[in-house]
Amino acid sequence: MKQYARVFAIIPALIPALILGAHSAARANTLVILRPKAEATGPHIRLADIARVDAKNVYAANAIAAAIIAPSPAAGDAVSFQREDIRRRLAEIGLDPDVTFSGAEAVVVSGYGSRLAATPNAYDSYMGTVSDIVSLDPKDLAPPAAPKNTGRALPGIPETGIPVAAWRVEAAERESAMNATRNQLAQAAEAYLLGKYSRDDVDVEAKVAGIPPPVPANAFDVRVTRELGGKVPGRAQFEATWRATAESQPETARFDVDVSVFAPAPVAARAIQKGERLTARDVEIRRVRMQAGCEYFIPRVDVVVGLAASKAIREGDPLLASDLQPPAVVKKGDTVRVLESGRGWNFEWTGKALADAGVNETVRVEAEVEKGKKTLRDVVVTGPGRARKDT
After folding, report:
1. Domain spans of the chain?
2. What is the pLDDT, as a whole number, of residue 3?
3. Rounded Cα–Cα distance for residues 53 and 40 (Å)
4. pLDDT at position 65
5. CA-CA distance, 84 to 166, in Å (whole number)?
């Protein structure tokens, strides 16, 4: 089989993925531990202000913790939220994680002073800060619902209220920044993989899965340094480095990527039945999407001509090493002449093949060493009805 296949194993299988994608982690493994009391730290109340967020994926946890729950109350005022208020708010802004709540049943949040003079937090700086007050018609302004347990409602006027539409503006800008980061990291992953394969006929498509790490859109020298786990093609995890400025020290981050690999390979030009021997007319070279764990032949017709299908193959399917084998030149029940040799001696004997086998394949034969006494021996097929055994 070795002399026929000349298999090009383009994609090795790697160890299982070390962590789940950010979205799946956010949906299934997020714990929100609500505090009974909190104080607003900016113009918006974020989930991180009122609760601790635990998730297996740190990027998912950070994104959920940064979610805006409501405008902050004015100095001296307070607002209260039940667990269901928070769950509903997360759904409104598109996170909608399958969270588990613990801690307090409700949280009371007090104002922090001036709602319009807050310094944006680190997540705002990365994702893009949106002005608290946007230019909208007064009819677009919606006062927040009356807080529970306080009997007070935040005013809905432009000077102090946050338009509902402003939340949508911030969400859109946040998603735009995330997409820019995804594209930047995807390009770095593609460059890394193309350098690894060093083949002009191989194409790679990478798509960052879940919430990306906080790499600034204008970062310098963004590049992937190594693979950490998973499968290529498929879901894999990479480590990347970048610099915030041209003079700053490199920073690192890990992220998950869905990778597709395309390359030319022999495919079936027609439907092929099990046992059929391939001819040049049966094979075409086409560009195919590679699958992890499969061994593909190099893109030449001659490397598969003469091989036999070990199973039925559909038209257009890639011809994999596991689907083809040398044609059988010895059939089950055939008499096989075996040349056995050792150091300075050799002799021939005959036996009966117990299975089909092709050239250079091993087959077990039954030989009669003495009258009425038989033995089983493994030999290597060298041609039709012939084999060898090295002692």
Report:
1. 22-176, 328-390
2. 41
3. 17
4. 80
5. 22
Give the pLDDT band of residue 29 (cuts 50, 70, 90).
low
Q: Which secondary-structure segment (H or E) carries 90?
A: helix 83-92
Predicted structure pTM score:
0.52
Q: Residue 23: exposed, middle, or buried by beta-carbon count in 10 A (0-12, 13-18, 19+)?
A: middle
- Domain 22-176 coded CATH 3.40.50.150: no
pLDDT tens-digit series, residues 241-277: 999 888 899 999 999 999 999 999 999 999 999 889 9
Residue 24 vs residues 27, 32, 205: alpha-carbon distances, Å = 5, 16, 22
pLDDT at position 214 over 50: yes
Which helix (H) or strand (E) covers residue 328, if one does?
strand 328-330
Whether the Cβ atoms of residue 32 and residue 53 lie closer than 8 Å to each other: yes
Phi, psi dihedral angles at 172 (to 5 degrees): -65, -45
Answer yes or no: is pLDDT of 329 > 70.
yes
pLDDT at 327: 85
In this structure, the strands spanning 220-230 and 335-342 are unpaired
Question: Amino acid identity, residue 270?
Answer: R
Q: How far apart are CA 109 and CA 229, in angstroms?
A: 43
DSSP result, 235-297: EEEEEEEEESSSSSPPEEEEEEEEEEEEEEEEEESS-B-TTPBP-GGGEEEEEEE--TT--EE
Give strand pairing partners of 352: 335, 366
Give the residue-averaged pLDDT of 116-143. 34
C-beta of residue 389 within 8 angstroms of C-beta of residue 338: yes
Q: Across residues 14-43, what is the average pLDDT?
A: 58
Q: Which residue carries 């009122």 as its tokens?
A: 50
Contacts of 345 (CB under 8 A, 6+ apart): none
Distance CA 217, CA 126 (A): 8
Residue 354 is given by DSSP the state S
CA 134 to chain centre: 39
The mean predicted confidence, pLDDT, of the chain is 77
Report the CATH number of the 328-390 domain. 2.30.30.760
Q: Which amino acid is at 273?
A: Q
Q: What is the pLDDT of residue 297?
A: 92
Q: Strands 234-243 and 251-268: what pairing?
A: antiparallel
Mean pLDDT of 373-380: 90
Query: Can the peptide bond before residue 147 be classed as cis, meaning omega within 30 degrees of 0?
Result: no
